[in-house]
Hints:
The complex is a heterodimer.
Chain A: H1 2-11, E1 26-28, H2 35-44, H3 49-63, E2 87-89, H4 104-113, H5 119-122, E3 126-132, E4 135-139, H6 142-147, E5 151-154, H7 155-161, H8 163-169, H9 180-188, E6 192-197, E7 206-212, E8 223-228, E9 233-241, E10 248-251, E11 254-259, E12 264-272, E13 283-294, E14 300-307, E15 312-315, E16 318-321, E17 327-336, E18 341-350, E19 356-366, E20 370-379, E21 387-397, E22 402-411, E23 417-426, H10 429-437, H11 442-458, H12 463-477
Parallel strand pairs in A: 3-7, 6-8, 7-9, 8-11, 9-12, 10-13, 11-13, 12-14, 13-15, 13-16, 14-17, 15-18, 16-18, 17-19, 18-20, 19-21, 20-22, 21-23
Antiparallel strand pairs in A: 1-2, 3-4, 5-6
Helix pairs in contact in A: 2-3, 3-9, 7-8, 11-12
Chain B: E1 2-11, E2 14-24, E3 29-33, H1 40-48, E4 53-62, E5 65-66, H2 72-78, E6 80-83, E7 90-94, H3 95-109, H4 117-130, E8 141-142, H5 148-162, E9 166-170, H6 178-191, E10 197-202, H7 206-210, E11 215-220, E12 223-228, H8 230-239, H9 241-249
Parallel strand pairs in B: 3-10, 3-11, 6-9, 9-10
Antiparallel strand pairs in B: 1-2, 1-4, 4-5, 7-8, 11-12
Helix pairs in contact in B: 2-3, 4-5, 5-6
Amino acid sequence: xxxxxxxxxxxxxxxxxxxxxxxxxxxxxxxxxxxxxxxxxxxxxxxxxxxxxxxxxxxxxxxxxxxxxxxxxxxxxxxxxxxxxxxxxxxxxxxxxxxxxxxxxxxxxxxxxxxxxxxxxxxxxxxxxxxxxxxxxxxxxxxxxxxxxxxxxxxxxxxxxxxxxxxxxxxxxxxxxxxxxxxxxxxxxxxxxxxxxxxxxxxxxxxxxxxxxxxxxxxxxxxxxxxxxxxxxxxxxxxxxxxxxxxxxxxxxxxxxxxxxxxxxxxxxxxxxxxxxxxxxxxxxxxxxxxxxxxxxxxxxxxxxxxxxxxxxxxxxxxxxxxxxxxxxxxxxxxxxxxxxxxxxxxxxxxxxxxxxxxxxxxxxxxxxxxxxxxxxxxxxxxxxxxxxxxxxxxxxxxxxxxxxxxxxxxxxxxxxxxxxxxxxxxxxxxxxxxxxxxxxxxxxxxxxxxxxxxxxxxxxxxxxxxxxxxxxxxxxxxxxx
Amino acid sequence: xxxxxxxxxxxxxxxxxxxxxxxxxxxxxxxxxxxxxxxxxxxxxxxxxxxxxxxxxxxxxxxxxxxxxxxxxxxxxxxxxxxxxxxxxxxxxxxxxxxxxxxxxxxxxxxxxxxxxxxxxxxxxxxxxxxxxxxxxxxxxxxxxxxxxxxxxxxxxxxxxxxxxxxxxxxxxxxxxxxxxxxxxxxxxxxxxxxxxxxxxxxxxxxxxxxxxxxxxxxxxxxxxxxxxxxxxxxxxxxxxxxxxxxxxx
Lengths: 482, 250
């Protein structure tokens, strides 16, 4: 059976498709972090004093904090003085006014990633706010969105144009004191996306942001804030890739979602950051804080994530179910292969009455990959009749990988119900042989089994992204066979 | 159609098949019987090309081509079908979808056009009815949570869909009650044709009451030690394997 094992190993050694580096002249800050760094970033963005004050407050708090070490992850300590905290493509004026002004090299990069940046492609119904390193280079479809009152812009612009909304909501879900990486982000966040959906508006298209880390030795600290006012709906997709480099790069983003009464936010992520090579050299350290606040009654926040990249993934998209009858959902597929490590899951804080949450987590480990699900379900004192269902499945490919499950359940209300189901299975030689005997090529068989395993999660993705996620998964797990 | 000459096979360094010879002509039904551990399942896996079965000597020709040089899926395209003793579960993989992927992979491998959704649905309904497989099972995951009889019927459905030239039934009768056995046997009999050969590997004569073989072989200690017509099976049922083994030793 050992010959068979080798072929399964080959199967999971796929190359990284997005490992090119764009030759764009950059305006990059030398590595290092102190209050001057923060003043520089804030100055570059011509930020008002209150924003600088917020950053400095966060920085001073961060200095007092310790890096968390509870995750099931192994990595060398991060030297925060080795990182450059600001990198922007150089440009003549104040920023491109249309796509014609955008550096063609940049557009070619997006082309390779398959991002529909040109307006014609965007006619497919996807509006893209592309973040290249730290600055938004182009925003499409903004006018069409503005006609229905939807604000979709970079967070830097929002600081200038919608200061009241930013002051009210920024840091209101993930405060700067929340955790080590969130504090760092609040101090140095370079750009990101702001979305506001006014009362009663159903956002007419999927909103999408592609983040891309390009400059060597730069960390990316973007910040996303989405506010859905009463009775509104928005579906948002975030996709991420990064070039191939030997050193590790830090990505510490913060995403905050606020859903008011009867509002629904659907947030989907396809994360394909560079995972490092097959010996575990290089790759992105992805330390991300994502949280949604179901602030109003009957509000609904749904997280769907497909995580195939990064050397290290540390993220727990969470829901605070504050409003009565509010609903939180978390659907996740996390793939680790090579020497990737993922510690990911969710937190559901049930505070309101009749709140409901669903957690479906699918972890796939191949080669030496380590995959941990970590989830917290907390039923608060007032969470009358609150319900949670958690389904946590692990799939192993090969015999050197690992799957771990760390569920935390806290129930403080006797009427609340919590269910947890977990399974671990392995793609067996029996299954592969069976599929091949029925005429399927080995890689098609693996893809079929893996896609079957992930089906419940893919069903939650918007159609076109589900197709993309399936392809990405196939590329990730495809190899030398066939 | 199939010609096995002096086949020696090792599994994890242990010789299981020790010079097996077998000729199967087009349209013939052969039963291979034998005691436990005689190498019956090894033979079926070697024919299907499973990894881990090392051929140290001998050859297998299928339609004159060297079968041992072909990958498992290429053998499937060429028309070899193995119904497993223990059909494998594929959780999350929709049974209907699996059948379609499988059929189209085989058709593509044979250089035929893939079937469109409408034609496929029509075919699968028709074939499912012929093996009395509840259509609900088509909507479930492949074999997951199926009863023993349902799994075997699902194998026969796959066989009916793929229309193999050589079908190998590995202990298809094991674990079936008499009603399930009858249904499965009817399914197999429907597939008997002048163009299709069948090898039935079985422990008991019981299956042969329903699917009548043209030839019966006794496999013992890695070799076929006796061949005959269907009456050989009855004799075995009557006297047990010891009788052949003793005669062979003598």
